[in-house]
Amino acid sequence: MPVYNKLVRDLIPKIIEKDGKNCSTKILNDEAYEKELKKKVYEELEEYMEAKNNEEALEELADILELMHALAKVHDSNIDTIEKIREEKQIKRGGFEEKIFLIEVDDE
Q1: Among 44, 82, 91, 107, which is most buried by a count of CB atoms within 10 Å?
Q2: pLDDT band at residue 100, thresholds of 50, 70 and 90?
């Protein structure tokens, strides 16, 4: 029997049961939930880094975005607020569209 010990999407237990299997789960407290969300972001980011094509990459980015929604709620906010912060930073500091790679800064 595989042991996962990880945060999963809400419908995963029902999907497992629909496949005729049993699983054990628990509901996390807020502190553990935030910790597991952060771990899940790393997991999904690693899967994104290992994506072999655009389709896989987009699937992983969608998972990361779902986690962004959940993390925003953990911080008593929402994705719209995060988007506004992103827009403000983009106006002040720019985005990443010009593909600029900083090599060094002469600070003398």
Answers
A1: 44
A2: very high
Residue 72 pLDDT grade (very low, low, confident, very high; cuts 50, 70, 90) = very high
Q: Is residue 49 part of a domain?
A: yes
Domain-located, residue 62: yes
Overall pTM > 0.85: yes
Q: Does residue 4 fall inside a structural domain?
A: no
Per DSSP, the three-state class of 98 is coil
Specify whether the CB–CB gap between 71 and 90 falls below 8 A: no
Burial environment of residue 47 by CB neighbours within 10 A (0 to 12, 13 to 18, 19 or more) = middle
Distances (CA, A) of 73 to 34, 35, 54: 10, 14, 29
Look at the chain and report how many structural domains it folds into.
1
Domain containing residue 89: 28-93
